[in-house]
Amino acid sequence: MVTEPTFRPLNPDAADLVPDGLFEASELARFARPAHKSGAEPTALLERLTTHRGTLVPGHTYLDTIGTCRICERPGGGFRAPLCAQTLTYCHRCLAVAVDGLPNMAATLTRATARATVAVRALADDEFGGAAFVESQLSTIHADPQLPVLPADIDRRLLLRIAITRGQLPWTHILIDAGLADNGVRLSRGTVLKAADGHLCLSLQEKSGRRLLRPLRHRSHARTPVPVRQTVEP
Ligand SMILES: [Zn+2]
To answer: Is the separation of the CB atoms in 10 and 69 below 8 Å?
Structure first.
């Protein structure tokens, strides 16, 4: 007897768009389409009512047609938007998880932070000119209407957003580990820098002090994660 997989993977075209290993199989199962579901929900109504499409793609025009979600291949609503010259179709579920990010079901930040670091680096290059950005900037897909992108580019930007759990990750660590803050991250309280031993320090003075102190004695200086999201300039 052949055992069917409980969950199907991503649409193969979409899966090829993201860095290898970005999603583990158990993570894909949280948003890829369950193979056993028949799709009996009121799809047209849910697609029409979702607010997540407007959050991610302001100024879009909903076409009120049901096609196939480009990410998970569930039924999804079609729309047009200035950032892409072609009709786009994403289901309300994929749009929702792109807005919220995957939930941290494992209840440990280690895996979620590693996944987010890869996704933040890729998004910075794709969408933010290689510069650091804050978590709140993920809510809207940024693109120049004068330079429309391909549907596959939107697929990738949504998938990378899905990979980033929201509201609980150490954003400063992620920016530094992604190579987006080599000169520190500027905050209202000072500049956060990564000391040679990997800990975060809150100022240049503190960093130089650590460099001086370290040969004399080894001391623990774990710092409470600094809330960075609202204070770093785009
Ligand atoms: Zn979908």
So the answer is: no
For 117-134, what is each residue's pLDDT tens digit? 999 999 999 999 999 999
Res. 24 pLDDT band, cuts 50 70 90: confident
Ion ligand 1 residue ranges (Cβ < 5 Å)? 69, 71-72, 74, 91, 94
Report whether 162 contacts 97 (CB < 8 A): yes
Q: Return the CA Rg of the chain.
A: 20
Mean pLDDT: which of 25-29, 157-161, 170-174 is highest? 157-161
Q: How far does residue 43's CA lie from ligand 1's centre (Å)?
A: 12
What SS3 class is residue 64?
A: strand
Distance 94 CA to ligand 1 centre (A): 4
Domain ranges in the chain?
A: 12-108+143-171
Q: What is the pTM of this model?
A: 0.76
